[in-house]
Design brief:
This protein has helices spanning 10-23, 74-83, 108-113, 121-124, 159-163, 197-208, 232-245, 258-269, 272-275, 292-302, 329-336, 350-355, 364-377, and strands at 3-5, 27-30, 46-49, 56-60, 65-69, 86-87, 131-138, 143-147, 171-179, 181-182, 186-193, 214-220, 223-230, 252-256, 281-286, 307-311, 316-321, 342-347. The protein is of the alpha+beta class and 389 residues long. It has three domains: 1-183, Uridine Diphospho-n-acetylenolpyruvylglucosamine Reductase, domain 3, CATH 3.30.465.10; 186-269, Alpha-Beta Plaits (2-Layer Sandwich); 272-364, Alpha-Beta Plaits (2-Layer Sandwich), CATH 3.30.70. The strands form five sheets. A five-stranded antiparallel beta sheet has the order 4-5-9-7-8. The protein is globular, with a radius of gyration of 21 Å. The two termini are 22 Å apart.
Length: 389
């Protein structure tokens, strides 16, 4: 049974990594542990628990920057920002309920290390685009820093792009600074009802390509949703323009006000439409938006009971499949074929995840590059070994 190391600050974190390096002990790196069921199961010698390295270090609302420690729960960050009517623009999802955990348990650092972003990714960018600076320890036991607290900070290497999406396999962070933005005064959602998938994606792409500044485009349960945010007069004018643009889409139109819109998009962000499918396998598929309906159709041809919805204007597909011994990975990845994109297994039993590639297999050249990056940061394989294998 693995022991637990629980450092209280950056100094103790470095000491813990140095000890693990000297003793050849592998580390299961955790913040609040909300995403343990995502990735391949790991067999580590020690749990490195970062939950005590917690708290807000600095918040400068006028500079649109917040700095916090690694174990700080997301709910604390969001509550702090709400006091000044600000937000994390990339809408990090709360995947706790989807992964059979309580809501609100995740950390901002965990979302960054997974490069997780919600519906606003299509307009505001990914998590890595909002990471200004950070400090941590690599697998050599060396403390390091990157970036700062301003957007234009040149260090020679864009480590944010490397660490975001690495799932804690390259380094352990103890502190991060992220960009925040003012929250919109008003949110309205235009709903187009009853469109089939292809027509829905066409409408979403038209909306995103328009001058109406759409900040979210999703197709869920026969409802094609387009989000507009900002001050009331601007939202009203853009909503009118969007209605005119899509008048020939062949759909009945409805609207959601601010409160209904926030609830709707929070559910999309947190994959709530699939959270109730308790025994289902959950996949996340990223693809060119116009290829999404064909990919889903190909999967449903072999698994008619599959359930799917689209986000990111069709470029993100959330898919639920009946439980199976191999997560139907050959069907899912086979459906991508020459269409492009990649599929990540988000939820499945541990024995299923142990037997398939959870993350999409990389091309040979990219896999070789990733191996060299891993060798540079963590040559002894201390951090989360096998999680992305």
């Amino acid at each position: 049974m693995a022991g637990t190391i629980k450092p209280r600050d950056a100094k103790e974190l470095r000491q813990a990594v140095e000890w693990a390096l000297n003793e050849s002990q592998t580390l299961d790196v955790r913040g609040q542990g909300s995403k343990l069921a995502l990735g391949k199961p790991m067999m580590c010698d020690q749990v490195l628990d970062l939950s005590s390295i917690s708290g807000i270090v600095d918040y400068a609302p006028e500079e649109l920057v917040v700095t916090l420690r690694a174990g700080t729960p997301m709910r604390e960050v969001e509550a702090l920002l709400a006091q000044r009517n600000q937000m994390l623009a990339f809408e990090p999802p709360d995947l706790g309920p989807l992964l059979d955990q309580e809501a609100g348990q995740g950390t901002l650092v965990g979302a960054v290390m997974g490069n997780l972003a919600g519906p606003r990714r299509v307009s505001a960018g990914a998590a890595r685009d909002h990471l200004l600076g950070f400090s941590g320890v690599n697998g050599r036991g060396e403390a390091f820093k990157s970036g700062g607290k301003v957007m234009k900070n040149v260090t020679g290497y864009d480590l944010s792009k490397l660490l975001a999406g690495s799932w804690g396999t390259l380094a352990v962070l103890d502190e991060v600074s992220v960009k925040v933005l003012p929250a919109p005064d008003q949110t309205r959602t235009l709903l187009l009802l009853g469109l089939p998938d292809e027509a829905a994606v066409k409408a979403m792409c038209a909306a995103m390509g328009s001058p109406h500044d759409v900040s979210g485009a999703a197709h869920v349960d026969g409802r094609t949703a387009l989000r507009l945010e900002g001050v009331a007069p601007s939202v009203e004018a853009r909503l009118k323009g969007l209605r005119h643009l899509l008048a020939d889409a062949g759909a009945t139109m409805e609207e959601l006000g601010t409160l209904e819109s926030r609830t709707f998009w929070r559910d999309v962000r947190d994959v709530a439409p699939l959270a109730g499918t308790q025994d289902a396998i959950i996949w996340k598929i990223s693809c060119p938006p116009t290829k999404g309906p064909g990919i889903v159709a190909g999967i449903k041809a072999q698994r008619p009971s599959a359930k799917a919805f689209y986000d990111w204007s069709g470029g993100l597909i959330w898919l639920a499949l009946p439980a199976s011994a191999d997560a139907d990975h050959s069907i899912v990845r086979g459906a991508l074929g020459s269409m492009g994109g990649h599929a990540t297994l988000i939820r499945a039993a541990a024995n299923v995840r142990a037997g398939v590639s959870v993350f999409h297999p990389q091309p040979t050249a990219l896999a070789a590059l990733a191996s060299r990056v891993k060798e540079s940061f963590d040559p002894k394989g201390l951090f989360n070994p096998g999680r992305m294998g």
